[in-house]
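Quick board copy: two proteins, each given as sequence then tokens.
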Amino acid sequence: MAIPKVCGIETEYGIQSVGPGDANPIAASSVLINAYVAELQRRVGWDFEDESPGNDARGFAREDAPEVETHLVNAVLTNGARYYVDHAHPEFSTPECSTARQLVRYDKAGERVLTRSMEAAGRLLPAGEEIVVYKNNSDHKGNSYGTHENYLMNRAVPFARIVQHVVPHFVSRQIYTGAGKVGTEASAGGSADVAFQLSQRADFFEEEVGLETTLKRPIVNTRDEPHADAQKYRRLHVIVGDANLAEVATFLKVGVTAIVLAMIEDDWYGDRDLSLATPVRAIRQVSHDLSLSEPLDLAEGGTTTALGIQWELLELARKYADDRGLDCVGDEEAGQEVLRRWEATLHALETNPGSLANQLDWVAKRQVIEGYRERHGLAWSDHRLTAIDLQYHDLRPGRSLFARMPMERLVDEGEVIEAMTEPPRDTRAYFRGRCLQRWASSVAAANWDSLVFDLGSDPLRRVPMMEPLRGTAAHVDNLLAGCSSPAELLEQLGS
């Protein structure tokens, strides 16, 4: 049976310095994050012990892998999340989550952390200077930055099988996960006459499978860092998605992908093969096709559409749910809600995409931009449309176009604010977050699969957390309640 799809999202945010000060994005990102964590009780840094960016899921390690940037700001928050500078961007990595809805909550909490960070930085910067953050994926200057998803998978599943079945899903899911974009920045094979497209990221992918994340980006990334027991698990590191502000889009992006991966684990596809003849070309075709009717060539002959692929996957998923159940995506209720939303969304995309303007980013953004363009008689090449595109993603509450729109909420704001400081109760993030809340001064460093304690006189003590579904409230609440100090906790764990 498929294992539980513990999941997370890592978002690199766009950043801009406004005013006469230093416009260096690395420096600005450091100021932003430092301003936020300085207001916390104590910063706990990241433990880089298990970072291995050169390991490849295909069975080898790259000697020329990029070095891990250990000198940049890197903090662990009490909700179990990681908040740090990644290259030239602030990045928020959610804690491990057990369901798509829970991940929506913590992804939104990340947005609020970034907004609070802008406010905190504003209190420190000289008059006339400001740091502005955008939740988007490209700067319209040929640069793209990522939003990565992570899913726990069974190590025993052949990687080739994962690639075979997940590529058609990644190519076609843009019809509901795309964040929308004016124009194109295709690095190869692009079309200059693309006025508006579904995805911000599609133009930047150049290979079907590979280890890179910033150059020659692949549709399936092979980075092999399980952040868990490597004998049992792999972490599928998905770099092909857009940063979504719409909660329904995030819910579908994660929930549907989790079900697809469960079906791959259980070899549910049988003889059904949706492999595309040219996936890299197809990912751009889908993104550039607002009619959602562009035929895509299949590897075995014939054609289909992105909608056609998604309908077939939904049919498979319904049969899978009837036969195997959906506990692997949290529980049966959570899985059935994904199926209901998925079907309703595909039906609306097929019959009336405009009806999804309060649920999907690309539909909402297109509606706003087309309305403005028509009112002012503008060509799609007009720079004002690009500015509106960017303003949709602005995280400043008074400037964000997204914030003014009547978008459907799946989690209420109180839940989101709580998630800024409180960890999920049903993954190992709970143990990490609770230890940071109670004993931050004794935690020397942390990462996804361990905590390192410094009790003063003794050597540093590492507590491994190799099982993502251990360390939950159910597992450790009584233990934590019975310990008055980290030394007592370590003694209890040792016994």
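And the next:
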Amino acid sequence: MANTDAFPAMRCRMEYVCLGCGARYPADSLLYTCPLCGDVFLLENLDFAALKERPAASWRALFDNRAGSRATALRGVFRYYELMAPLLDEEDIVYLGEGATPVIEAAPALRAGVGLPFAYKNDGQNPSASFKDRGMACAFSYLKWLCRRNNWDEVLTVCASTGDTSASAALYAAYVGAPLKSVVLLPGGKVTPQQLSQPLGSGATVLELPGVFDDCMKVVEHLAENYRVALLNSKNSWRILGQESYAYETAQWYNWDVADLCLFVPVGNAGNITAIMSGFLKLRELGVITSLPRLFGVQSEHADPVYRYYAASPETRQWRPVRVRPSVAQAAMIGNPVSFPRVRALAARYISLGGEKAFQVVQVKEQQIMDAMLLANRHGHIACTQGGECLAGLQNALALGIIGRNERALLDATAHSLKFAGFQELYFTDGFGPEYGVTPDKTLANRPEALLCEEDRATLDDEAYTRRAARAMAARLRLSAK
């Protein structure tokens, strides 16, 4: 049997390919947009044809065997090294426990209520509690490789964020240390306290700007174009490569058979849905999977430019950013996703191989997002608001008849529910402002109830206090004495 701990010997040539003008640039440079036309890149493995010489069954066996590897460099997303960044050396790989996140089947009662078999992939169980760690593991591994090749003594990593990107970037920068330093730019007052605590705790320089994410993104884009900094938003093509691992893990979990699988993915800045399409297309090209799963992007009506684009007929489609409104799916509250050109290019390929129904975008309401998140978590899941967005998307797809009850679905819970506990609190206390368009269902409200008062604790001895509290609890629960 082959040594599953052996790091791959193969190295490949890679290039940035501009999606606008087709210009190509070597991979050993910090580039985010094309110097000629300003469009975004995809990274291309110039030696990908050589991978096709290996039989599909052999690829499946290799990836399955590596699942039990004890080698640090192969335990995370780089289990799929040859499909992602096969120019890095073992010493470059950064691993913090990312990847291999669990697929959790919907609780029986939840499945029965929705009317279709589905599961959540809990990407909130990554190290910084979001899916962003997949891309950061690849981006920081690449930066280590690049710094080593160029003997750079300091590189500033920068990102704009609605919370999760900054948490992940700061965590990986703190782990790698010199020559990398982390700066994050956040829209003031629009990041949850839990998410804000993460880059602060990792020691990053945290800057806030009035406005929304799109304003912050323009600033860091300007920095990347005019200064030598490492941009870590999804404009960074290396991040897209790392996030492809979501597709590889999904296919592997379902034993490389995704024929009747429908994936629901929040769109946000469109990096994740780009990566997932790209990953499945690579697997299909190698024959590792024989058919593509269906892919549904999900957007709130408060930030839905990609939905609007695909809702129009093909001959009338025009790309127009939108001005976002406040959304509980805060990480997806982006009106001008930087990866949209990638979505458009890859969706065309995806549809040409999988048919017109292979890629679609579903719109949901803010009310549906919150209700779906609470519904999922009331059944034992740990879905964030984006996970609620995906469940709402599945429910709407069923209502529209664009998914059949004979199919199965996988929903992307992009972050841990604790990151968005503040929105749950607003729901339980009816604290949403009118701009959200959320009216809480009072039957879902859950608040702590006081059994006794402070005076009881102050005036009763311990034994009497225990008896009174127990009687109060028994009365509240309507317990019968033995």
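Board note added afterward: The chain has 19 helices and 13 strands.
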